[in-house]
């Protein structure tokens, strides 16, 4: 971070002077994460990035990129900072000289994570003054790795209760914390996912992936275990794709297109006949009633420009807030389908 051109690196004032805080940051490029393209991430003081769309109380549990998640407190020292840079090809976050509460005398931890436009992720460690397995997890989880999850609405067991939001962790990568030492690094190379395929043929026949199904109504390829899980359930994609082939979808589409085309022709002819009849009636009415108000109004409008319609732009009024009421969130680790 010290060697890059001046002005690219930003030291985040809030994160560098806070404890257990997280700030949402926009990326200048689409970052592919488990087949999903992210344009916003959340940087946390605790040595990790949260990648979810919905901020919830279990921020450290799922949907994270964690070079070293622990109970760091950047507010302890003026030397402690959380900084980042974005050059359009890579987004880097660095936790600089951050310390652990109760173990400040051990020294500061300095490490970073780099998110590349290609989807590659690297963890780099410069100063790790304490063995990671000796860091207490009593006040904060201690992790190093990746995780992703999906959120679905689960019907409540009681009719009067609202549906519960269930978070399912469908994949996790954990690195050996014994290898998190001074001047070490880890690189993650992304594998192709079913979401990569944009056609039925590639979805069902590609050698790059396995277990993929094509949902014709959504025009999406998936194994059913990704962030679009709720849509996959809502549109019964698993049932639709059973024993179905791309030829079946093509025949259905052709039949529907032909039916719609015939319907469109009939509707067009009917509309033309109605319009023609209306024009004849208007012409006859004007001819026999030249001095009434209505014909004069029609003639005036015909000679002038149609008035333009102006719509006032309204503020959407959306704000990011934490939900109130009783806790309805829970986590389930998704097993094989």
TrEMBL record:
- Does this entry carry the keyword Ubl conjugation? no
Q: Entry's InterPro entries?
A: Plexin_repeat (IPR002165), PLXDC (IPR031152)
Q: Where located?
A: Membrane
Q: Where are the transmembrane segments?
A: 260-286
Single GO cellular component annotation? membrane
Looking at the record, which segments are called Disordered? 317-337
UniProt entry tagged with the keyword DNA-binding = no
For this UniProt record, the keywords arranged alphabetically read as follows: Glycoprotein, Membrane, Signal, Transmembrane, Transmembrane helix
The way this protein sits in the membrane is described as: Single-pass type I membrane protein
> Which Pfam families does this UniProt record tie to the protein?
PSI
The UniProt similarity line reads: Belongs to the plexin family.
The molecule here is called Plexin domain containing 1
């Amino acid at each position: 971070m010290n060697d890059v051109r001046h002005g690219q690196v930003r030291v985040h004032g809030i994160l560098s002077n806070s404890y257990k805080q997280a700030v949402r940051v926009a990326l200048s490029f689409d970052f592919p994460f488990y087949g999903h393209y992210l344009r916003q991430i959340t940087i946390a003081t605790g040595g990790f990035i949260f990648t979810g769309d919905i901020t919830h109380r279990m921020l450290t549990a799922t949907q994270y990129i964690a070079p070293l998640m622990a109970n760091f407190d950047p507010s302890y020292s003026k030397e402690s900072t959380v900084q980042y840079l974005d050059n359009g090809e890579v987004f880097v976050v660095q936790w600089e000289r951050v310390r652990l509460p109760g173990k400040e005398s051990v020294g500061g931890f300095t490490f970073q994570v780099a998110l590349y436009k290609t989807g590659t992720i690297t963890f780099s460690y410069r100063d790790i003054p304490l063995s990671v397995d000796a860091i207490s997890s009593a006040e904060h989880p201690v992790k190093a790795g990746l995780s992703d999850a999906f959120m679905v609405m689960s019907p409540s067991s009681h009719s009067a209760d609202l549906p519960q939001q269930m978070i399912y962790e469908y994949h996790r990568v954990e690195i050996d914390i014994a290898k998190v030492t001074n001047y070490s690094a880890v690189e993650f190379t992304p594998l192709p996912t079913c979401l990569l395929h944009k056609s039925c043929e590639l979805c069902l026949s590609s050698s790059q992936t396995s277990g993929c199904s094509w949902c014709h109504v959504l025009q999406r390829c998936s194994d059913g275990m990704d962030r679009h899980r709720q849509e996959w359930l809502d549109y019964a994609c698993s049932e639709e794709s059973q024993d179905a082939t791309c030829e079946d979808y093509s025949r259905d589409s052709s039949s529907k297109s032909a039916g719609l085309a015939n319907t469109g022709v009939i509707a067009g002819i009917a509309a033309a006949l109605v319009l023609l009849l209306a024009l004849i009636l208007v012409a006859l009415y004007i001819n026999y009633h030249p001095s009434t108000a209505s014909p004069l109004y029609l003639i005036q409008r015909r000679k002038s420009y149609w008035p333009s319609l102006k719509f006032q732009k309204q503020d959407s009024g959306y704000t990011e807030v934490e939900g109130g009421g009783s806790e309805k969130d829970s986590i389930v680790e998704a097993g094989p389908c």
